[in-house]
Structures are given as C-alpha cells and as structure tokens.
Amino acid sequence: MEKLFRYLEREYRKKTAKSAALFRRASRVMVRGGSHSLRLWKPYPFFPVSAAGAEVSDVDGNRYLDYWQGHYANILGHNPEVIRRAVEPHFQHGTFHTGFETLSQVELAERLLASLGRRGLKVRFTTSGTLASTYAVMLAMGYTGRQRVLKVGGGWHGASPYLLKGVKFQPGAGFRAADSAGVPPEFSRQVLITRFNDCQHLSDVFQKHGRKLAAFILEPFIGVGGFLFCSRQYLELARQLCDRYGVVLIFDEIISGFRFCASGLQKLYGLSPDISLFGKLIGGGQAVAAVVGKAEIMEGCEPSGLKHRRVHFEGGTFSSHEEYMRAGLAMLDYLEKNQHRVYPYLGQQAEKLRRGIERVFREEGLEAVCTGDGHELVPDSSFFMVNFPRKKIDYRQPEDLWNPERSNVTLREEVLKLALLLNGVHVVHGGGCLSTAHTPEDVDRTIQAYAEAARIFRRFL
Ligand SMILES: Cc1ncc(COP(=O)(O)O)c(C=O)c1O
User: How far apart are CA 119 and CA 122, in angstroms?
Assistant: First the structure.
C-alpha cells in the first residue's frame, strides 16, 4: 500500500503545485495548516477558488465533483441560486450583525416546530452542532439533577467536552476510550458507552446505571460511525427505557435532520425524543444549530431556572444572525415545497452510485461494500461510504468500519481519497452525500472515477 500511496502522491503533487505552495504558507501560521483535520488530508489539501452546484475548482485549475458538500450541509449543492436569491435582498438593508433578537429567527423556529408536528416544544438557536450538543447535555443534567451521560460507541456529536469519549476506534479499547486531552478525567468517567443498535446491551446498561443517567444521546442515523440507520426496535426501546428511568432522550439530528424527509428522521420513525439537535443544512449554508426540546426542559434556560439550577445556555454573539436565519428559512422552504422530488431523486442517484461503485471494484477483483443503504422506513438515503472488508462482514456496527482488523481503514481514508482526486472527485471517508446539484451524468462520471481508482489499486495491491 505504501508504494501505491507514494505513486498517488507524486501524481497529485504534479496537479496541485499552487495548492502545495499555499499549504506551506498556511503551515507557517496555522496548526497543521488549517482549522479542521477532516479537511487536511495527506499530503495536503487543495485550495478552492470557487464552488458551484456539484463542483469545486481549485487554484491550479482542477475541477472536482464534490461529495463532501460542506460537511453534508449543502443538500442543494454549493451556493444554490434559490438560497442566494432569498438572502440577497436582505443585503440591501444590511445583514451585518446587529446583536438583536430577530423576527427571522421566530420564523425559523416556527418552521422547525411545524415540520416536527408536535406540541409543547421550544427552540433555542446557537451557531454550531458542538454547542448544541453541549447545551443539550447541560439541560439534561439541570433537569434531572444527574451527572452521567450515555452515548453510542462511534457516535460523534462535535467536540463537546461532555461527549469526547468513544468517538475514535482505538486498538485494544475499541470505542470505549476518552478521545481528547484537555477534558477533566471526571467528565470522561461520567460518560458511559453503549453499542450501536444493540438492544440487549442498551437494556443491560439501563438496568445497571439507568437511575444515574441524565441523558442518552444518539444519532438515529449514525454519521461518521458509518452511515447506518438505527432499527425502529432499538429507538423504541431507547424511548421506553428513558421513560422508565427518567432519562432525557436526545436525538442528534445534525446530520439526519431534513436529509431524509422535510423534517427530522424521527418523523419517519414516528418517535418523539425529549430534545432534538439540528444543524448543518438548517442554516442553508450558514452557521445555525438548534436545540429543540420539551418546554419544561428548555425552561432551564430561564434566569429563574428549573426546579434545579439555571442552565447557562446563551446562543452566542452570532446566534440568530439575520442572514443565517434567512438562508435557513429559504432552505427549509425549498425542501418543504419540493420534498416529493428531492428525496426520491437523491435516494435513487445514491443507490445507483452505491451499487455502481461495488460493481467496478468487483470487476477488478476487489471487494468494496457501500454503507448508507436505506431500509423499509427510510427507503431513500443520499449517503454512501465505501469500505474494504478484510473478511466477510455485514457492516452493521461502527466497529465493522473502523476496526482496522475488519476493514482496510487506511485504504478508504487516505489512499482512495487521493486516487479519486486524481480523477476529479472529492470524497471524505471514501464517499459522502449526494446533493440535488449532482446530475445523473455526474453520478456516471463518479462511477467511472471509482473504476479508474480500482484499476490503479489493482496494479499495486
Ligand atoms: C451528528 C453530529 N453531531 C454534531 C456535530 C457537530 O457539529 P459542528 O461541526 O457544527 O460543531 C456533527 C458534525 O459533523 C455531527 O455530524
């Protein structure tokens, strides 16, 4: 694999000389040359000059079909006309930060609640998913007066100090270890880890620790953990156990919200968490995240506080920014009006991509398995992650994708990435998500790019 990577790196360097120079400059003033490790692939990232629809162009004049799409926020592609048109008139009146509560945030909150179709909920906005998950845990702790939090191994809820455990697979420890320095050890001790989609394990954990848990936080569709849906049975059990033990059930819908239908994924499952988190696409490409919870829990934000102490949840200086809220409203409006076209289209194209990618690898004698498939409740998923199994695997657990003994993680994360960049496609974790800007022809081109990557792999592996 070493030889293969060196070959790809050489070819990539030939195409990206200007990006290489910019990366050297960036590295002089920034840690590792940037702000987010997922954007800082080896040997260095390209620097974009423009992004429109499905494509990104870099400083060296290369064009890439992009399946990262703004960390999965851009369901309508990059810089969509429909959102620009909605936001631009507001620039005339000035959309710079004012520091006042805005009417547009009320409209976005109304829109979110209407999409969920439930009564007795309240919203507070902030500017990132990390902040939303942090505040949700604080609200749950304030409400219950308890300190422990249960999360799923492989679940990523942002870099919240409360939840930086069991995110990265670590040999020997699996998904049980603390993930970051700088978090007090007592925080990590309060976080318990349960296995994704495992009903028996969940029941056991609740039986042992249920009365001490403030919250159970999970993604109904696990993102970084492998693009896998929870079963209905699992989510129903989670709801029952949280009710029985007085635990706040938090659905992190920062990836899944408005991705599979014009609402939370909870709507398709017919389930009601106590707190839901939204982010990414609800801002229409701007920094918006929302905590949506039962009024009695959200009232913890009131200065007079809950029955326990007040939770100091302030959305932040830039929360409810007029421009962000307008962009979010335009996005949710569009999805609401076009849901019958958007979701089936994304699902069909992603399905073609998933099966096409598996086929082209098979034709080169290599096995690739795509996760992201829908199921009976969610027939249309726009996600795909390409995995290289070391042995026969069903791909049901984050461990299947992240344990290097089960899947060739380096081949997916580092090698495939470069091979595809050489063929004009940008992916993260071996895949990504479709946007409405990806045409059926783009999907065909993408399958061809994977076929070319498979041929290169064949030569070296
Ligand atoms: C499921 C989930 N929750 C929370 C977050 C954190 O969001 P942010 O990056 O806006 O802080 C992410 C980010 O990828 C996510 O995927």
Answer: 9
Q: Which residue has its alpha carbon closest to ligand 1 atom 8?
A: 129
Distance, CA 254 to ligand 1 centroid (Å)? Answer: 6
Q: Compute CA distances 148 → 109, 143, 177, 247, 398, whole Å.
A: 30, 13, 16, 10, 23
Cβ 388 vs Cβ 412: under 8 Å: yes
User: What per-residue confidence (pLDDT) applies to 428?
Assistant: 98
What is the pTM assigned to this prediction?
0.97
What are the residue ranges spanned by the domains of the chain? 2-80+340-460, 81-331
Summarised one tens digit per residue, pLDDT across range 347-400 is 999 999 999 999 999 999 999 999 999 998 998 899 999 999 999 999 999 999
Element (H, E) at 121: strand 121-126
Name the residue among 263, 431, 243, 244 with its Cα closest to residue 343: 263
- How far, in Å, is the centroid of ligand 1 from the Cα of 258? 15
Is 254 near ligand 1, meaning CB less than 6 Å away? yes
Q: Which of 36, 130, 385 to mutate for ligand 1's pocket (most ligand atoms within 8 Å of CB)?
A: 130
Q: Ligand 1: does its nearest atom lie under 6 Å from the Cβ of 128?
A: yes
Instruction: Say which CATH class 2-80+340-460 falls into.
Output: alpha beta
CATH number for the domain running over 81-331: 3.40.640.10
Check for a shared fold between 2-80+340-460 and 81-331: no
For the stretch 115-125, pLDDT in tens is: 999 999 999 99
pLDDT band at 309 (very low <50, low <70, confident <90, very high): confident
pLDDT value of residue 305 = 63
- What per-residue confidence (pLDDT) applies to 307? 65
Distance 157 CA to ligand 1 centre (A): 5
